[in-house]
């Protein structure tokens, strides 16, 4: 599988809400989709949102899972 974060990762979600990323990550993990949060420490500045990345091949299903669970996405 390689590194947890690579060029094959796509941005799924961007948010300044610190509760969304862990919730989304747990939803995806329950479905077997690995997600990687970036900018976590920078978001403490309140000017840089956190981002959640998934592998390109999981992007479509990850979007469906989050939408089905009430998480709004900026497509």
How does this structure look, described?
- There is one protein chain.
- This protein has a single domain, classed as Alpha-Beta Plaits, CATH 3.30.70.
- The N and C termini lie far apart (27 Å).
- The protein contains two helices and three strands, in the order βαββα.
- The mean pLDDT is 85.
- The chain is of the alpha+beta class and 75 residues long.
Please tag this protein with its features.
single chain; 75 residues; alpha+beta; Alpha-Beta Plaits; three-stranded antiparallel β-sheet; 2 helices; 28% helix
Write the SSE topology.
Layout (H helix, E strand, L loop, with lengths): L8 E7 L4 H11 L4 E4 L11 E6 L3 H10 L7
Rg, Cα atoms, Å: 12 Å
Tell me the structural class: alpha+beta
C-alpha geometry: globular
**Tally of individual domains:** 1
Low-pLDDT runs of 5+ residues are none
Mean pLDDT: 85
CATH architecture level-2 label: 2-Layer Sandwich
CATH topology: Alpha-Beta Plaits
| Helicity range | 25-40%
Briefly say what this structure is.
The chain is of the alpha+beta class and 75 residues long. It has helices at residues 20-30, 59-68, and strands spanning 9-15, 35-38, 50-55. The chain has a single domain, classed as UreE, C-terminal domain (Alpha-Beta Plaits), CATH 3.30.70.790.
């Amino acid at each position: 599988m390689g590194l947890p974060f690579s060029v094959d990762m796509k941005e799924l979600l961007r948010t300044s809400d610190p509760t969304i990323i862990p919730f989304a990550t747990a939803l995806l993990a329950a479905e077997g989709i690995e997600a990687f949060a970036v900018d976590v420490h920078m978001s403490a500045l309140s000017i840089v949102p956190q981002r959640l990345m998934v592998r390109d091949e999981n992007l479509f299903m990850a979007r469906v899972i989050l939408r089905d669970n009430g998480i709004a996405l900026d497509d």
